[in-house]
Amino acid sequence: MRIQLLLTGSELMAGDTVDSNSATIAQHLGRHGLAVDRKVTIGDDLDLLCAEIDRLSRDSDLLIVNGGLGPTVDDLTSEALGRVIGQPLQEHPEALQHLTRWCAKRNYPMNEANRKQAILPAGVDIVANSSGSAVGFRVRFHDCEIYCTPGVPSELLGMLEQEILPQLLQRFTDIEPVSISRFRLFGMGESGLQQRISDRFPDWPAELELGFRAGLPLLEVKLITRKPGLEPLKAEWIERLQSVLGDYLIGQGDTTLAESLVEALQHKGLKLCAAESCTGGRIASQIVEVAGASNVFEAGYVTYSNAIKQSALGVDAGTLETHGAVSEAVVREMAAGAAERSAADLAIAVSGIAGPSGGSEERPVGTVWIAWGFKDDIQAKSFYIPGGRKFFQTLTTAIALDLSRRAVLGLQSEPRYFRERGTK
Questions:
Q1: Is 259 a residue whose pLDDT tops 80?
Q2: In this structure, are 194 and 150 located in the same domain?
Q3: pLDDT per residue over 348-388, tens digit each?
Q4: In terms of DSSP bridges, do strands 219-225 and 179-185 run parallel, antiparallel, or are they unpaired?
Q5: For labelling, which of 9, 26, 229, 415 has a CA lying 20 to 30 Å from the CA of 339?
Q6: Which residues pair with 42 in a beta bridge?
Q7: φ, ψ dihedrals at 344, nearest 5°
């Protein structure tokens, strides 16, 4: 199948909205062996939209148009499709019924702007939208299946999973699903991992594709098979791959560092607390996003000023005066104070200089001290993380979560970031 995407919206072209929908579509189709060949993004221009729908549909088996189904004057997809396929716009009874129910459920009076979403090209089939006000629709033209979908990401996702993919799999019965196993790592880069795999497994089988996706803060490695009957081979090599990933492996699929930590705490029956300065609550926030965190997370303290470090955590004024807020002595006292006040088994504490100002020759911007571990065995280390305030806070949070994960699991090996970013 030749599959193409057409993303529409002037907000995409201006950079006001980042296009995540094309990635969502490609990922969901890809899991079923359907690869996107091309994507085109255009602004809210009726003539250009008509031209692209006509051009892409002539060269596709499947065209997914995303965006332009809303109630405003710059939502042009219905009008453009009608022009291309030579069908007049008319009020579609099924679309109007959906819109009426949607408004009634929210006690929202329907107005003419809303009603525009039920004006569709004649002859199209409705694609149900389980959460939004605008239905999707589809039509066959130029021997191409054209699907028009909403631009709201959550609505698109529901439509893909509940409507579009089931219809495609029913229609195109010769599609062979792709098997993808994903593993997430922290603390190792793409080149380092690729070298490890190449050195360890020069005989890596060609039938098993390896893919890498670097992000902040995690690295994802994928193992892909595109033919049936390879599951035994894949299982064997997953085991070998995991031996190479070692302590850097935090989980499979979409596992986050916080999820991995919460799972480890639950397994061990332990509780954790956090004392944060430069990360401003990010550590605690990521932990409590995880279902079940209430069983393992006792408390989070955001102690930004020195005065609050003293009053909330019991950090000694003399320690702050002698060593400064960004120091080993202070983060140790922050961790000890948080553990004592919350009665948690383990503590995390961070204090650093996020920038862009506030640094010195001795402690430049990007310096952070992290304390972590069991309350009777607190460890501490400083790291240097230059690169901007947001980058600093993101990576500091990730390192703190990972060090806590390692402490809970009893992992003794020293991670690479000790050598690459550690200072003391």
A1: yes
A2: no
A3: 999 999 999 998 989 999 999 999 999 999 999 999 999 99
A4: antiparallel
A5: 415
A6: 8
A7: -80, 160
Residues 14, 156 within the same domain: yes
244 lies in the same domain as 261: no
Q: What is the DSSP string of 228-284?
A: TT-HHHHHHHHHHHHHHHGGGEEEETT--HHHHHHHHHHHHT--EEEEESTTTTHHH
Domain with 200, as residue range(s), is 179-252
Angstrom distance (rounded) from CA 177 to CA 179: 6
DSSP element (H, E) containing 323: helix 317-323
Q: What pLDDT is stored for residue 390 in this prediction?
A: 96
Find the CATH number of the domain harbouring 199: 3.30.70.2860
- Residue 326 CA to chain centroid, in angstroms? 31
Structure tokens at 193: 């991992």
Separation of CA 380 from chain center: 30
Residue 404: its pLDDT value, please?
Answer: 98
H helix or E strand, kind and range, residue 123:
none
| DSSP three-state, residue 364 | coil
Distance from C-alpha of 259 to C-alpha of 291, rounded to nearest angstrom? 8
Q: Are 119 and 89 in contact (CB under 8 A)?
A: yes
Mean pLDDT, the chain, rounded, equals 94
Q: Using one digit for the tens of pLDDT, what is the confidence trace for 34-83?
A: 889 999 999 999 999 999 999 999 999 999 999 999 999 999 999 999 99
Q: pLDDT-derived band of residue 169, with 50, 70 and 90 as boundaries?
A: confident
Place of tokens 């430069």: 278
Read off the CATH number of the domain in which 415 is found: 3.90.950.20
The domain boundary, picked from 105, 140, 171, lies at 171
Average pLDDT over residues 313-332: 97
Residue 8, helix vs strand vs coil:
strand
Rounded Cα distance, 355 and 258, in Å: 25
